[in-house]
């Protein structure tokens, strides 16, 4: 019973996160994208990391869902197909590899999220730089994009950690 409910809750939460990524970015665009700073919300990444680390059975098809939602994200939000289709499953793979080595608590998951957020943002920056979508140097990226993005997403992580944790443990 628990697993079947989690199999329903996970994709619903994933697509809710996908919708909220764009909607909240649009609603708070004046605050998230005020020149020269820009912050990207990564609710999809947050939901995937929660699913990997809070699902104790590891039976969810998080890798497949991450590829699918990455494709939808690329088609709908970025217009550059391939960036999130590769980045999100890569993060899922990396998280699954390190999960057995970690003692899961709030601070550990916070650090894992910071590292994965940095990996995704760096991956997107490199991809866009190689594709000539953006033209900027690494220092500007670190100061004006990566720093604010980490700050905003960490605040969201702190707010959502305990409710999402309770959600995952309530379906046990």
From TrEMBL:
The entry's localization annotation reads: Cell membrane
* Membrane topology category: Multi-pass membrane protein
The record's family statement is:
Belongs to the MreD family.
Q: Which InterPro entries match?
A: Cell_shape_determining_MreD (IPR007227)
What keywords tag this UniProt record? Cell membrane, Cell shape, Membrane, Transmembrane, Transmembrane helix
Ranges that cross the membrane: 35-54, 75-94, 106-129, 141-162
Stated name of the protein = Rod shape-determining protein MreD
**Alphabetized Pfam families for the sequence:** MreD
**Which GO BP annotation is one of this protein's?**
regulation of cell shape
| GN (gene name) | mreD
Where is it mostly found?
membrane
Q: Name one GO cellular component term.
A: plasma membrane
């Amino acid at each position: 019973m628990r697993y079947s409910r989690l199999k329903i809750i996970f994709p619903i939460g994933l697509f809710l996160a996908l919708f909220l990524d764009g909607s909240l970015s649009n609603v708070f665009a004046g605050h998230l994208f005020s020149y020269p700073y820009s912050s990207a919300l990564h609710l999809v990444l947050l939901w995937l990391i929660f699913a990997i680390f809070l699902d104790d059975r590891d039976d969810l098809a998080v890798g497949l869902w991450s590829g699918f939602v990455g494709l939808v994200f690329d088609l709908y939000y970025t217009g550059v197909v391939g960036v999130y289709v590769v980045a999100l499953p890569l993060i899922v793979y990396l998280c699954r590899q390190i999960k057995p080595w970690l003692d899961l608590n709030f601070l550990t998951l916070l650090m894992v999220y910071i590292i994965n957020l940095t990996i995704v943002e760096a991956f997107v920056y490199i991809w866009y730089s190689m594709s000539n979508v953006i033209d900027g140097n690494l220092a500007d990226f670190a100061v004006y994009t990566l720093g604010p993005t980490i700050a905003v997403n960490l605040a969201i992580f702190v707010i959502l950690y305990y409710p999402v944790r309770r959600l995952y443990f309530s379906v046990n």
